[in-house]
Amino acid sequence: MANYLADLRKEIGSRPVIMVGAGVLVFNSSNELLLQLRSDSEDWGLPGGAMELGESFEQTAKRELFEETGLTPRLLKFVQLLSGEHLYYEYPNGDEVYNVIALYETAEPEGELVMDDGESMNLKYFPLDHLPINLHKITQIMLAAFLDQKNNQD
Known about the structure:
Elements: H1 4-12, E1 17-27, E2 33-38, E3 44-45, E4 48-50, H2 57-69, E5 77-82, E6 88-90, E7 96-107, E8 120-126, H3 137-153
Parallel strand pairs: 1-7
Antiparallel strand pairs: 1-4, 2-3, 2-8, 5-7, 6-7
């Protein structure tokens, strides 16, 4: 499978790029949130990643969720589109990005948790009121946007 971002990095190195992608809030039947312990930054994050050429946001969300967790969503619900300078991130390898993220949520996905893409050191569900302290910076922003929107709907 092609890897647009890796190919782009060969041309431009670590310089900042606009990275378009998707993140997925996955909830189980106990309303616990699935997080992955990331192998690159060793903190907890949401499943998700960069869009490939020709993909829609929904396709990106489904592909990344499956690649990183082995799960397939029954239904993806769009939450919010996130962008801006607060979504700047420098990866541990020095690559710089300004993220544009389509955030989705899904409940009780199909499949069994599997870690075989090398991006996860652990996959675990957490109650929303007992999340790990070492949350990835971008995950904190996505969670805040989700909770803010949820609180405004109630």
